[in-house]
Amino acid sequence: MARGKIQIRRIENSTNRQVTYSKRRNGLFKKANELTVLCDAKVSIIMISITGKLHEYISPSTTTKEIFDLYQHTMGIDLWSSHYENMQQELNKLKEVNRNLRRSIRQRMGDCLNDVEFDDLQGLEQEMDNALKVIRERKYRVLSNQIETQKKKNRNAEQIHKKLLLEFEERDDDPHYGLVDNGGDYHQVLGYQNGGSGIFALRLQSNQPTPHHGGPGPDLPTYPLLE
């Protein structure tokens, strides 16, 4: 009894489809290699899976480029001409855009205005006025921020100045200001950090004349005061 013909159709299950693709691809590449060895043929196979992954087989005696060149020569066609023409058209468009941009820049600098119509000149003037307005507003914002920052610095400097003046006034009112603070060690305040002797000098002055001089007498001797 003859076997029924199996209908070839797309495998619905994605996993089974990928497994079948991998097996058939390996089998196809094996057959291509056999043709290369047995028949001395130049074989090139390019396969792209549904996931976009490319697989290629090329006979060791040739390259993919040689196969394409041989195909073009044999068929009398140029595979790259249409692609080159598209690239050339895209290049021409980009050059035109570049020329227009350069002309627009020169016109905004006051050049290339001889061939500009009145309506275009009026539109250009409006664009320049709008741009000038935006620039002026930005300038004022920057200037305002700088002024406000400087005012804050000035206020801070004034507060520091007032604080220093207040400290100097307190020192003038209190001769012992700063010597002992909150019961601190007055030895250290006066400079006796190493436990040196706390000796103070007392100098007494007299305006009375001495027996040997007509003017005021010299300073009396200095008497050390022990703590």
From TrEMBL:
The keyword Transcription regulation applies. It holds the Pfam family SRF-TF. Keywords: Coiled coil, DNA-binding, Nucleus, Transcription, Transcription regulation. Residues 1-61 form the MADS-box domain. GO terms for cellular component: nucleus. GO terms for biological process: positive regulation of transcription by RNA polymerase II. InterPro entries: MADS-box/MEF2_TF, MEF2-like_N, TF_Kbox, TF_MADSbox, TF_MADSbox_sf. This is Uncharacterized protein. Residues 84-174 form the K-box domain. SMART domains: MADS (SM00432). CDD domains: MADS_MEF2_like. Residues 77-107, 140-167 form a coiled coil. Residues 205-227 are annotated as: Disordered. Its main location: nucleus. The lineage of its organism: Eukaryota, Viridiplantae, Streptophyta, Embryophyta, Tracheophyta. It is found in: Nucleus. GO terms for molecular function: DNA-binding transcription factor activity; protein dimerization activity; RNA polymerase II transcription regulatory region sequence-specific DNA binding.
